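re: the backbone from monday

yeah here it is again, tokenized this time
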């Protein structure tokens, strides 16, 4: 059986998602493989979980957006502990697996996979929120063949994943040196990497990253839990929090109208 390392970051209040994630993973995720969980956390309870298949590592919580912006730094800096893994897969803390998933469907014949962003898979490439700052290493022009992928569920053969992590680390460090933070942080850099290495990626449908607070009319395979139901995301900044709640309010209005139409 292939050995798969699950990369999971849970600093600050994100530890609250662990139990649901782990239970659903054990039930539905890659039952055709040996799973090893690599936790990066500052939570005492999770740090004491270390076992034969769970490896907990201390990671200091940082001010937003650094926990997401620097996640590939964490993976690359810990590369030695992954040396026995065949594959590495990063999972956002708030994912819940709803249906059985096999290794083959993630990768097909490719060494890596990414997932279409659920907020943009139906939109024209003209609306993709790529990094527009030409001085950023994440800068990317839109084209008719563009895709926009989310940052919350991706993976690859260990060698490929760590190579990507190193390149993203170098690019993000260069931006920081120049006083630049890409619009969507690591996701902006990840999209640039996917665009430049498209032939290496199997692109999964948005069913593998289905937000709990959206109605997409597609199959739900992996649910992205609504963080705001678990803790307030004010830590991401007042503007982000305000925008998030406005968009959530708009979605609720649309859903109410759809329900009335159905009646």
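seq for it, each position gets an aa:
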């Amino acid at each position: 059986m292939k050995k798969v390392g699950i990369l999971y970051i849970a600093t600050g209040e994100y530890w609250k998602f662990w139990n649901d994630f782990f239970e659903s993973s054990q039930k539905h995720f890659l039952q055709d493989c040996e799973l090893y969980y690599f936790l990066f956390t500052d939570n005492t309870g999770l740090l004491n979980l270390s076992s034969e298949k769970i490896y907990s590592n201390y990671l200091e919580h940082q001010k937003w957006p650094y926990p997401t912006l620097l996640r590939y730094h964490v993976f690359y800096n810990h590369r030695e502990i992954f040396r026995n893994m065949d594959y590495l897969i990063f999972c956002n803390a708030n994912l819940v697996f709803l249906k059985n998933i096999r290794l083959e469907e993630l990768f097909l014949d490719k060494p890596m996979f990414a997932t279409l962003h659920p907020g943009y898979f139906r939109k024209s490439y003209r609306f993709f929120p790529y990094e527009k700052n030409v001085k950023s290493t994440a800068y990317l022009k839109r084209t008719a063949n563009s895709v926009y992928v989310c940052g919350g569920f991706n993976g690859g053969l260990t060698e490929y994943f760590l190579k990507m992590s190193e390149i993203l680390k170098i690019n993000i460090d260069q931006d920081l040196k120049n006083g630049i933070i890409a619009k969507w942080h690591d996701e902006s850099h990840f999209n640039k990497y996917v665009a430049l290495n498209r032939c290496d990626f199997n692109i999964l449908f948005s069913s593998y990253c289905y937000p709990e607070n959206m109605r997409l009319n597609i199959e739900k395979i992996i649910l992205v839990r609504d963080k705001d139901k678990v803790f307030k995301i004010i830590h991401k900044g007042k503007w982000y929090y305000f925008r998030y709640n406005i968009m959530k309010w708009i979605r609720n209005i649309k859903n109410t109208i759809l329900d009335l139409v159905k009646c």
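The longest strand covers residues 2-10. The CA atoms of residues 7 and 90 lie 5 Å apart.
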